[in-house]
Amino acid sequence: MAGGARRLFRRILQLHRALPPALRDLGDRYVKEEFRRHRAAGPAEAQRFLREWENYAALIQQQIEDKQNLREKAVYGIQLTEEKLNDFRDEQIGQLKELMDEATKPHKKITISKDSEYKT
Predict the structure, then answer these.
(1) What b/e string do you get for 39-77 counting C-beta neighbours within 10 Å, with b at 16 or more?
(2) Can you tell me whether residue 113 is helix, strand or coil?
(3) For the chain: N or C, fewer Cβ within 10 A?
């Protein structure tokens, strides 16, 4: 993953600037961790990884625009379908659960543990 990945990474961090501070902090750290983890991914995995993050960037861009245009209440992210969840590996389910736990903690500083890839 080279130039295209770097551009996408920077675009996502730029989009996160429009998020509420706690979500921005969580999102920035998660994106950095995931891009670092996939730095040496094979071509097929890298392509799938980048496609998913491009979809995420497009979704966040649209949600930011909707908020700015006051068309909708500020809601970020989407519900994952059962089909999408079934495609996840156990490691990814563990990461998702950890993210959900952190994102739903009331008024606490959000953290991601460094060993999150090993939790299930």
Answers:
(1) eeeeeeebeebbeebeebbeebeebbeebeeeeeeeebe
(2) coil
(3) C
Could you report the per-residue pLDDT of 3-50, keeping only the tens digit for each? Answer: 789 999 999 999 999 988 888 998 999 999 999 999 888 999 999 999
Burial degree of 15 (CB within 10 A; 0-12, 13-18, 19+): buried
Is the Cβ–Cβ distance between 63 and 76 less than 8 Å? yes
Residue of 27, 92, 26 lying closest to 57 (CA atoms):
27
Residue pair 38/45 in contact by the 8 Å Cβ criterion: yes
- pTM, to two decimals: 0.68
User: Which contiguous run of DSSP H or E holds residue 65?
Assistant: helix 43-68
Tokens of 14: 């730029």
What token pair was written down for 47?
Answer: 């392509």
Q: Are 56 and 9 in contact (CB under 8 A)?
A: no
Report how far residue 94's alpha carbon sits from residue 97's, in angstroms, rounded to the nearest whole number.
5
